[in-house]
């Protein structure tokens, strides 16, 4: 029997078209959650859902669903596919969009093929996966899985002072459906790896078996503004210098350990932010990640200890706010094995791996068996306009998703 494959030209064309939506004056892709540019991306995705003849649903946190529910399905719990279409600042075109559009592509292919699924198959674009504008990240899927109260999430204040709920209303994506309205049978997310492993090893498919823990904190250091020319170093309470010491502490600690711990300070601002004034306030974020929960706790504790001694040594005030905290997640062994088998059946090498990035799959794993498929990222580059995955790898990954979905959509309903 000849094996059907996805429509590669349609998928690649859509990835490219969505990637053109939300370019700023410098050509950078910026589709922050619930922004004007993200609305345009959402509108395009919704148009494609309608073109595919799927039922559209939007829930209260703005998650968008395209539902394929043939009349004669025997099981109401849907197989859920998806990812996100919001982006970071200066994003590539694949992160999130690849998985979302592949989910849609797979459903269209199976519909055309005349598959009679035992259960609905649904594609989702989850709100605010990136967490750049509103914390925490993976917010739409977290709310969907019941891990964050909807009203708290809608009240989230953005880095630009906006309120998420009002922004969703403004762009027309504050839906009526209660989050969690469809309890999934299973969830599968296809994504670019965003790291260097698959490319380095020459392997086209990753079966993602777990995902590392994520800790996000915002640290504020307060000192005294004073004259840059007249204040002796020994008399300063320099919030900027103290902040710089935290950056190097995190880096040195991660580098000198034999563990996979990673630490990043991605945002920093000084007040009053003037060339000849000692900073009176430094605010910065800390992103700590580790696949091992115990070790992640140790890293958080080491940072807390360092901040305490820093406060005494530098005579500065230190306060810490937690922005997000997610434990490492283990994905469903059965679906991981299915992914490995699908790759083998298409003659593609596959390896098991850990996801370094956060994904909606880690939230949906709270309410349904879930797993992920990765494809290589050239140079391991992501969250960058240079993010790139070869078309051949994109198509191969979408075909693995197709085969996995065909299996999960038709297998017998467990007693
Ligand atoms: C999501 O992109 C993350 O920060 O891992
Ligand atoms: Mn992503
Ligand atoms: Mn991302």
Describe the protein's architecture and organization.
With 415 residues, this protein is an alpha+beta fold. The chain has two domains: 285 residues, Aminopeptidase, CATH 3.40.630.10; 113 residues, Alpha-Beta Plaits, CATH 3.30.70.360. 35% of the residues lie in helices and 21% in strands. It is built from twelve helices and 16 strands. Strands 2, 3, 4, 6, 7, 8, 14, 15 and 16 form a nine-stranded mixed beta sheet that branches. A hairpin with a 5-residue loop joins strand 2 and strand 3. The protein starts with 7 loop residues before the first helix and ends in a 5-residue tail after the last helix. 49% of the residues are buried. The model has no long low-confidence stretch (mean pLDDT 97). The site of one manganese (II) ion (MN) has 4 residues, from loops.
Write the layout of secondary structure elements.
Blueprint: H1 8-19, E1 29-30, H2 36-51, E2 55-58, E3 64-68, E4 79-83, E5 89-91, H3 97-113, E6 121-125, H4 139-144, H5 150-154, H6 164-171, E7 186-192, H7 197-201, E8 205-211, E9 213-222, H8 239-256, E10 262-264, E11 268-271, E12 281-290, H9 293-314, E13 317-326, E14 329-330, H10 333-345, E15 350-355, H11 360-364, E16 370-375, H12 391-410
Parallel strand pairs: 4-6, 4-7, 7-16, 8-15
Antiparallel strand pairs: 1-5, 2-3, 3-6, 8-14, 8-16, 9-12, 9-13, 10-12, 11-12
Helix pairs in contact: 1-3, 3-12, 8-9, 10-12
């Amino acid at each position: 029997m000849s094996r059907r494959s996805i429509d590669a030209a349609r998928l690649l064309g859509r990835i490219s078209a969505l990637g053109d939506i939300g370019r700023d004056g410098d050509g950078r892709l910026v589709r922050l959650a619930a922004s004007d540019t993200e609305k345009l991306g959402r509108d395009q995705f919704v148009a494609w859902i309608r073109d595919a003849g799927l039922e559209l649903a939007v829930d209260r946190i703005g998650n968008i669903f395209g539902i394929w529910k043939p009349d004669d399905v025997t099981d109401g719990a849907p197989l859920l596919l998806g990812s996100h279409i919001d982006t970071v600042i200066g994003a590539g075109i694949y992160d999130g969009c690849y998985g979302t559009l592949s989910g849609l592509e797979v459903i269209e292919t199976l519909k055309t093929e005349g598959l009679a699924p035992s259960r609905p198959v649904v594609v989702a674009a989850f709100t605010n996966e990136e967490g750049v504008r509103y914390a925490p990240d993976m917010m739409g899927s977290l709310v969907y899985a019941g891990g964050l109260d909807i009203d708290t999430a809608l009240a989230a204040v953005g880095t630009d002072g906006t309120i998420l709920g009002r922004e969703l209303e403004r762009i027309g994506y504050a839906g009526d459906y209660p989050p969690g309205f469809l309890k999934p049978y299973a969830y599968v997310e296809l994504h670019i790896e965003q790291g260097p492993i698959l490319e380095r090893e020459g392997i086209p498919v990753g079966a993602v078996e777990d995902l590392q823990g994520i800790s996000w904190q915002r640290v504020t250091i307060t000192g005294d503004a004073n004259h840059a020319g007249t204040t002796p170093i020994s008399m300063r309470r320099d919030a900027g210098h103290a902040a710089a010491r935290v950056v190097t502490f995190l880096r040195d600690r991660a580098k000198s350990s034999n563990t996979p711990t990673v630490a990043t300070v991605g945002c920093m601002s000084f007040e009053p932010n003037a060339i000849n004034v000692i900073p009176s306030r430094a605010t910065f974020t800390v992103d700590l990640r580790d696949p091992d929960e115990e070790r992640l706790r140790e890293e958080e504790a080491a940072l807390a200890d360092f901040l305490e001694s820093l406060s005494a040594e530098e005579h500065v005030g230190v306060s810490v706010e937690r922005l997000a905290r997610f434990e490492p997640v283990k994905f469903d062994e059965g679906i991981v094995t299915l992914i490995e088998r699908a790759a083998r059946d298409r003659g593609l090498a596959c390896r098991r791996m850990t996801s370094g990035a956060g994904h909606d799959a880690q939230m949906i794993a709270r309410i349904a068996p879930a797993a992920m498929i990765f494809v290589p990222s050239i140079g391991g580059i992501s969250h960058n306009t240079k993010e790139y995955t070869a078309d051949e790898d994109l198509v191969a990954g979408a075909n693995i998703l197709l085969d996995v979905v065909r299996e999960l959509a038709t297998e017998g309903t467990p007693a």
